[in-house]
Amino acid sequence: MKIIVMNRSSAKRETFKPNAPLTAIISITDVDKNLNLFQYPGWLRFVYRFQFDDVDMGQKDCITPAQANQIAEAVETIKDKVDRIIVHCEAGISRSSGVAAAIMKYLTGDDMEIFGNGRYTPNMTCYRMVLEALHEPFNEKEIREKQRLNIAFWKKLFDEGRI
Fold first, then answer.
1. How many domains, the chain?
2. Which of 15, 20, 118, 131 is the most interior residue, by most CB within 10 Å?
3. Tens of pLDDT along 21-66?
């Protein structure tokens, strides 16, 4: 199972491809934005839509436990029915990578494709809540170490002038 993180426009463009593996999309948009619209080629089997902002727990329009549970239910429904899951948010950097990392951890036991990549800055509230909804064990020490590693990757890219 391939888990792919994209931004809003890339996810939309992806659905214009004539051929692709069987796919599900978890679409995350800002609360004040329109939902992302997709073409529905034969390979696109499921689209799950969520609206929450890129904020931390306790802030207005944060991911809710109900939304995290809906994401977990979606993963359970599709995990044996598709070859890949595209998770997108507006920029494809924070919310989508947090959700994708949790799904990766649940399905494969490894989320370092996200945390070990300076392209992403996972929203840790999304990560924690979706992991919890998937009943995937985690500990705060491990999460803090992943955040530290991710920040180090961002700093390296910045120092190299790549961002």
1. 1
2. 131
3. 999 999 999 999 999 999 999 999 999 999 999 998 778 899 999 9
Longest dimension (CA), the chain: 44
Identify which of 12, 19, 22, 26 has the alpha carbon closest to the alpha carbon of residue 103: 26
Angle, CA 87 vertex, CA 7 and CA 125 arms, to 5°: 95
- Please give the DSSP secondary-structure letter assigned to residue 20: -
Would you call 109 exposed, middle or buried from its count of C-beta atoms within 10 A (0-12, 13-18, 19+)? exposed
Give the C-alpha separation, 138 to 154, whole Å.
23
- Of 93, 102, 43, 40, the C-alpha closest to 67 is 102
CATH number, domain with residue 21:
3.90.190.10
CA 122 to chain centre: 8
pTM above 0.85, yes or no: yes
Q: Give the whole-angstrom CA distance, residue 78 versus residue 94.
A: 23
Q: What is the pLDDT of residues 84-129, one digit of tens each?
A: 999 999 999 999 999 999 999 999 999 999 998 888 999 999 999 9
Alpha carbons 30 and 88: distance in angstroms, whole number = 11
